[in-house]
Write a structure and sequence with these properties.
Elements (H helix, E strand, L loop, with lengths): L10 H14 L4 H27 L8 H19 L1
């Protein structure tokens, strides 16, 4: 179900929205605004993930031994799936 929200914009912003709708292939200004909101949600989610990563305890270094073990683990899974 869609809810309705009315917004007021100065003429300069309304003109900008209208230009974006026309030039970027949106059917309506509502589609454009929905896309902006979705992108903002994604940006906020990414920001939270980055902050969580920054707060996390550092993991062991990813040196040559790490990648050798990772490749071996992947090889085992590939062999198991083929069997």
């Amino acid at each position: 179900m869609m809810s309705t929200m009315n917004i007021s914009l100065p003429e300069t912003l309304k003109s900008f929205v209208d230009e974006q709708v026309e030039s970027r292939g949106f059917g309506t200004s509502s589609e454009y605004v929905r896309e902006l909101i979705r992108k903002d949600q994604e940006r906020l989610q990414l920001r939270e993930l980055l902050l969580a990563g920054a707060r996390a305890k550092p993991a062991a270094a990813a040196d040559g031994a790490y990648f050798t073990a990772l490749r071996a683990s992947i090889d085992k899974r590939v062999v198991a799936r083929k069997s």
